[in-house]
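Appendix B, record 7
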Amino acid sequence: MIKKKNIKKTIAAIITGILISCSLAVNMPVMAEEVTEAEYITTEEASTEYIEEEEATVEAEFAEQDEADSTVKELSEDTEKEASDTEYELTGYIVETPWYEPDSDSDVSLYGASLTEESVYKTLLSFMSVYPEGMEWTNANSYAPYYHYTASGRRITYTGFGCAGFTFHLSNGAFGNLPDREHYDWNNIRVGDIIRVNDDTHSVIVLKVDGDKITVAEGNYNSTIHWGRVISRRSLAGGEGTYIWTRWPEMSLNSPSIYCSSDFPSITAGMTVNKSFADCDVEYRWVACDESKPEEWFEISGWKNNYEWVSWKPDKSGNYILKCYARIVGNEEESEVSAVTGVGYHSDIKGICQMPYDGPGGGYLIGIESYDNPNQSYSYEMLILDCTLYAKGLPAWTYTTGKCKVSEGNALWTVWQPEYGYYWTLFRVFDKNGNMVDEECFGFQNIY
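Structure tokens (predicted):
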């Protein structure tokens, strides 16, 4: 619960409110695992809103009112030195380095570019040298500042007492000045998230997520620092959890594009996307359709995690449309993007050529080559369509080689002298039985 007290009230009214809050907290029932109950008390001073580009802050305090002593107790230099000389081990890591204390907005790009679950985890554990297991930590201990951003963009500056102060310090150490946001998706808990639990009376910070098990660190746990308590995700979703503050950047995909190569004997394609956050898993799905049947999509590769490639051999030659979907694992609906491209697949035509001819008579040199010509049994044909005649509804096929076999090799060449205009050339290959096995079109113009 967040209560707001107007600073214009008299000092006597403030003191009265604090005493009332203390009285209420004393009468609260004791929470599970004997974690001390607490509330957030938010006090606004010189209040102005931080919206868009306005540079202003709302000073506030997170105070836990379960203990009457409200005196701020700072760690002495001797206490810090003594704690930093001690090593602690948790799930395989020996921590010797101190925490990183961000001091400027420039840390945002640094953290946003390099954050990983492991790096955040290691940073959190480095605080064990400052906050060892069992160290006394109550509402008399505090930490500031911590910046919280509301959905409207308002920035509030908090001073945290007890459990809140402990989680704020660790969060700043792990994420620098990255902004936080509040959500209630208990299936999307990540390392470093601050979770408010027990009817909004206690704060914990996440160290590890393993299925239903959420391992946390916390201050003011029986008036001490505690590392490694496990809370079930089901209990959080079932009412123990109040909300989550996460500082992991929102993940999205943009600028999707497809690279495609139709080299025989298959089509190879890859999807490229820009990720707003590097440490996320992306899965890909590929579908295709015949260009002549654009509504009949079929799947060629189902969802695959972090594998953006596909290799596909169509059943027949032709022109196809490839489409790839990409989405972030864990944020599928909101992050999905797609891209399409056209690709021709030719099982027998290896290449076609159409170029100006400088020999006797001039014109165009036109050729077709197949991958193979078993026992010189293949036949080749090239036809020319006059687009101007076609547009007028007149007979438009103005040139053909007819079906021709070659005595050697696997290519057929011809020279054609076109008139001024626009044309399509149709290249065809037939097997020994006269069945067309492949064809390809190419448009060109003779307007110079």
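Remarks on this record: The radius of gyration is 35 Å. The longest strand covers residues 318-328.
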